[in-house]
Amino acid sequence: MRKAEIKRKTRETDIEVFVDLDGSGKVDINTGIGFFDHMLTAFGVHSGIDLTVKCDGDLYVDAHHSVEDTGICIGKAFAEALGDKGGIARYGSAYVPMDEALSFCSLDISGRPFLVFSAEFHDDRCGNFDTCLTEEFFRAFAFNSGITLHIREEYGKNDHHIIEAMFKAVAHALKDAMTETGKGVLSTKGVL
């Protein structure tokens, strides 16, 4: 069973995350940041995982701590649920369009965390979400899950569409990479 539950409490956030990588895309998200909840819902639905996120953060400061710490917790949950990463396809890539926007993701569930993020947003915010926090979320997720993650905005004008296409592209790439193959660890080393 590829499931994990992570609880993390700091002076800035109190977060609980549950993932079931073999779920059906059932989500229950509440971070107090409407646009971010919308993105995490899309992430869960499009990756096919069951995802529960409850975050009580210091939103009176801003959304940064809540978004970054949620990325940390989801990343840790993925790492735990994937275990030794054996028996999975390991790699995934996806282009996802959303109206005028197109985003791309390529990733490797490698145990070697890295983020390459390329996007230029047109506005500072989508609702109560700072657009710059998109990169912060994916960095925290990549480094805590042990995933090499490349995300690129191909083009677009509407930041909502660009960011949503990114979350969906990551979700579809993850869905492919997490596919069970029934074989051992996909590495010439024999381990990741």
UniProtKB/TrEMBL annotation:
It is found in: Cytoplasm. InterPro entries: IGPD_sf (IPR038494), ImidazoleglycerolP_deHydtase (IPR000807), ImidazoleglycerP_deHydtase_CS (IPR020565), Ribosomal_Su5_D2-typ_SF (IPR020568). GO terms for biological process: L-histidine biosynthetic process. GO terms for cellular component: cytoplasm. Its EC number is 4.2.1.19. CDD domains: IGPD. It is an enzyme of class 4 (lyase). It comes from the Bacteria. One of its GO terms (molecular function) is imidazoleglycerol-phosphate dehydratase activity. Keywords: Amino-acid biosynthesis, Cytoplasm, Histidine biosynthesis, Lyase. The keyword Acetylation does not apply. Pathway: Amino-acid biosynthesis; L-histidine biosynthesis; L-histidine from 5-phospho-alpha-D-ribose 1-diphosphate: step 6/9. It catalyses: D-erythro-1-(imidazol-4-yl)glycerol 3-phosphate = 3-(imidazol-4-yl)-2-oxopropyl phosphate + H2O. HAMAP family: HisB (MF_00076). Belongs to the imidazoleglycerol-phosphate dehydratase family. This is Imidazoleglycerol-phosphate dehydratase. The gene is hisB.
